[in-house]
Design the sequence.
């Protein structure tokens, strides 16, 4: 009986470890470490924006429109980025450029606009896409106090709203 309890305890511990690894891996896929900074990136359908917010920033909402969001934070002592411990800023001013490439190697240049609000700076780039389209993103982010841009690459599959 004691052996069975040990085996069950080990199985539970392994399941928790696997779950934690999965959660950490998901978080790491949306950010890239670069020196003392974290480059956070995400892609989302434009329908998630409220109409008044989209209008305020000159963004067009639509079923075939999405946005790339980029924000950069300093890494705190605990290895996480942002917040008051990250230099008092939730997003730092940087220079961002990029492109999205589909499977046919067609390139869409991403034109980022800077958004500053409530002590945060982040960047949005609107673009059009086809339903179930797989896009390979390549971003160039020039961090504060660096002359050379850092390269960030990731792939996303997009679906129409």
Sequence:
């Amino acid at each position: 009986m004691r052996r069975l309890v040990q085996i069950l305890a080990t199985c539970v511990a392994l399941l928790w470890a696997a779950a934690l690894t999965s959660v950490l891996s998901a978080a790491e896929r949306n950010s890239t470490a670069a020196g003392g900074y974290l480059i956070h990136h995400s892609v989302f359908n434009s329908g998630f924006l409220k109409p008044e917010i989209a209008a305020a920033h000159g963004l067009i909402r639509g079923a075939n429109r999405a946005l790339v969001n980029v924000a950069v934070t300093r890494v705190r002592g605990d290895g996480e980025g942002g917040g008051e411990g990250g230099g008092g800023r939730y997003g730092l001013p940087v220079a961002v450029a990029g492109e999205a490439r589909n499977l046919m190697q067609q390139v869409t240049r991403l034109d980022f606009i800077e958004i500053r609000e409530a002590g945060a700076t982040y960047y949005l780039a609107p673009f059009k896409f086809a339903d179930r389209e797989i896009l390979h993103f390549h971003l160039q982010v020039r961090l504060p106090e660096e002359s050379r841009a850092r390269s960030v690459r990731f792939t996303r599959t997009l679906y129409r709203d």
